[in-house]
Amino acid sequence: xxxxxxxxxxxxxxxxxxxxxxxxxxxxxxxxxxxxxxxxxxxxxxxxxxxxxxxxxxxxxxxxxxxxxxxxxxxxxxxxxxxxxxxxxxxxxxxxxxxxxxxxxxxxxxxxxxxxxxxxxxxxxxxxxxxxxxxxxxxxxxxxxxxxxxxxxxxxxxxxxxxxxxxxxxxxxxxxxxxxxxxxxxxxxxxxxxxxxxxxxxxxxxxxxxxxxxxxxxxxxxxxxxxxxxxxxxxxxxxxxxxxxxxxxxxxxxxxxxxxxxxxxxxxxxxxxxxxxxxxxxxxxx
Length: 286
Hints:
2 domains, single chain, two-stranded antiparallel ribbon, Rossmann fold, 12 helices, 41% helix, alpha/beta
């Protein structure tokens, strides 16, 4: 089948399925399958696509029509200018989360000992290690599949990060915090924890609700379960003057600020995203 005609077929199939970005997704999937770029629509639009590529493309289009996220089909997502491997074991990195990384970068973190809780794809800790100097990084996740994905990304980026399978940071705490350094403390604890209230999960778009890991989405009845746990369970792992950094939901700023202050944190700051919504919060342990 001709390249342009195959693209048209894919776009129409996605439009019929109600995919919002039908035109873009059909093109990106075709480029992924054929190893082409957007210029090839003009340059090779009349060329025949190999039969095996045509079949593969149609299979991907069918999966996308069932609302499988594009990123899981291509196993690729860009974050902080880096390419990350993603699969159904991890949340797809989002632009909003770049605000979390950028906030830490603006505060300065060279030479810091960083612990990320709930690392998923590893996009946060690996971006910090990639762009920082002299940092030590440890990342935890309860999901073995997530840690395998994070490890794959670390190897792809040529970065050294310690990955630990544990519930939040329980095994690090049990070991006296010595997983990464002899003093048993970190300068930064960062997390993008599950923060969607349980009752809201069913209302999410199908790409998220039906395909992204619920374990990484569900923040309990009020969405604050993991903020409470992290703050209560990891305080001893922060060095004096150490900082917490969290991504938060747009309506959670005041609630998480109160949780930080209840645990003795000062200099609590809320950072807004590019839409003007609360997105990141930080606090300094006294």
